[in-house]
Amino acid sequence: MTRKREIRFIIIRSLVAICIALLVATLLIFISAGGDTFHEKLEATGEALRQMLIGPLFRMSKKKGTSFELKRLADILAAMIPTIFTGLSVCIMFSANQFNLGAEGGIMLGAFVSAMVAIYVPMPAGLHAVVAVLIGGAVVAILMLLPALLKTKLSVSEMVCSLMLNYIIMYVIKFLMNTYLADKSRGQIMSYPFRETSAIAPIVNNTTFSGAKLTWGFVVAIVAVILCGLFMYRSRWGYAIRMIGINQAFAGYSGMKVGSVIVLSQVLGGFLAGAGGGVEMLGRYTSFSWSALPGYGWTGITIAILASNNPYMVPLAAFFMAYLSKGCDLMATYAKVPAQLIDIIQGVIFLFFAAEQFLAKYRQKLVVKSAEEEIARLNLNKEG
Amino acid sequence: MLNFLKMLATPEFFYSIIRISAPILFATLAAVVVEKAGFANIGLEGLMMFAALSGSLVSYYAGSWFWGFLAALATGVIMSLVMGFFAFKLKTDIILVGIAVNMMGSGGTLFLCKVITNLTEGKAMASTTGLITRSLCIPDITIPLLNQIPFLGRVLSGHNLLTYLAFLFCLLTSLMLYKTPLGLNIRAVGENPDAAASVGVSVMKIRYTAMAFSGLMSGFGGAFMSMAYAQGWSLDMVSGRGFIALAAQAMGGGECLGGMLSALVFGFAQALGIKFSAIGLDSNLASPIPYAVTILGLVIFALVRSSRIRKQHSAAALAKGKAKAES
User: Fold this and answer.
1) Superfamily of A72-320 according to CATH
2) pLDDT tens for residues A201-226?
3) Which residues pair with B140 in a beta bridge?
4) Complex prediction ipTM
């Protein structure tokens, strides 16, 4: 198949998957929409869909019409920061065919550790955030040694192990917060405020961007994307990770150190998740108050699947998910459709993207067409 | 310490172990059968969430626990068949199918609950606990004669109908796997699908059957969670039991009986956690105990297995050496 056709197929396939998901969403919105008659319901559905699909970037009002709003774009870009990190983390872990689901707990632990560094360790401004984020990442990287080593040494399922770790991380953090670290002077359970030196500054210092919390963290996330891309496609280790993911036995026979590469992939994944937690925490909040797993890890898995484990595609997938999630929030606010619709849409898109045989017949047709053209061209050459 | 042990040696404690183990046991049986058929269904968690929701909603709207119970089973089976369609027909990695179902099982069930009941407690939470009354739950059963026995009676009698079914199903599943043609086919497909196909077994049919069985068991497990363990459905109420079951399957060596024992171990860990928090341990420290025990259990199981394999290897090598020396 020619490269052009290949790309066309991928685009069409993605669009069809997204359309199916939106169709399911429309159906669900229709069921949940208010209104007594069919017509009213239809109208409500239309309104909800408009909020979901156009709302994330455009403000809609009856008087002024639809207008683009920079603040909303900044919101979406800011929302991408944690999920780019978890997406990259999952990309690298899944590339080695390791279904480690620890990004969820990892980002919470990273955020927590970074927050602690930001509160209790005095450091000069500028350096503080960097050190806090790095320590957050390092702690999670070390923690990920556990499922990785158990998998390579004892073939314990890394999936079950990492899932259990997520729960343990959540409860231990809750315990530490409740008993030792909470600022008792506040109404709810939250830590003492971070030192001002640790804050990650907004990219542009005006109300639009600082209000949206679009910080330098976004730039860091993009840099991480490029580094991960270079690592996966331009380095020996990245190559080994991908080869092990494709065929572990073959990689082993050809002399790669399968065990250590698998460990490396998960430690790196852990570091990215943890660092992402730190960047999100120091960029968006002024004190630690998470009391449950944030869900960024699961979104990260969807993003990795949408990006088919290609780090360069992660920002695009993250943008898409952030857009949808923002759309669902707006829909919940203005059209009274519960925001958790995002989970169903996410699941459906996820399923169709991961389905290898989805639209396989169409692909087959394209392959046949390419082959026929090739033969025709060869014949032409022969005759000519 | 002694006091604490005395607290554990009560019939109520053993009763609670059995009660807590039941949903894990259902899910473990599901995991055992699909594993025998040669794949893994990690979507048990999500399946149980959906089954739990549909069970409690249908029992509320139909006004009878029986219909809710059936709805939970049907939900489990239908969803697992859809999962099977994606995995076998569209060739999605079965692990990813499971992850997708788990994702939907968390927020998606909340969405459905809000939409169907029009309930919103506060801003984000909604549950059906306010709708369900005791009579809409699956009833407890007192076993005559057995309940007369002093200690044992209070441990074994008075459980929920589903608790007894869980242990009964453990036996039945084991019989199904080893004494029926279906079980033989499932194991054959799991061992070597090509060989099974060559003697005329429809591999797809067997895989779908195994998948449906796991859905059925998740249906039982889900129904237990929302209609027996708790009164009504609430967000993330299954809280990892589907995942713990995967570990129980591995620790039980992939067999029903072993799985049951592991499920009881996890039940014990959880019951212990509850007791710990009863004597004043922070609940946030008691809650992770079953999860930590799961990891620990997996590690111990793996160590035992690897040392057994090593022993077998060295025994085989010795036998080989001996045979060589004799010849």
Assistant:
1) ABC transporter involved in vitamin B12 uptake, BtuC (1.10.3470.10)
2) 888 777 777 777 888 999 999 999 99
3) B160
4) 0.86
